[in-house]
Prior knowledge:
The chain contains three helices and no strands. It is mainly α. The chain has one domain. α1 runs antiparallel to α3. It starts with 9 loop residues before the first helix and ends with a helix.
Amino acid sequence: MAKDYFLGDPIVDKVMKVVMALASETYVTRDRLALIEKKLNEKGVVYSEDLDSYQPTDEEQAAIDQRRDEFVSSILKPIIED
């Protein structure tokens, strides 16, 4: 029985999984770095507790969500464009 693959080839699908895993890690790193920069600008020092317990405001969360969506779009653009 033949398997259906998202991108038509099992190897390409596996490469895509790797790319998406790396993209996910990159996004988390970018998001964490943005928070570190924010806290450094505010206090001049950053403690891990500050980062771990941080809760963004609704406005900040909207900006975070927008940056995330733009990042995902940039990663997927080569796949979805004709």
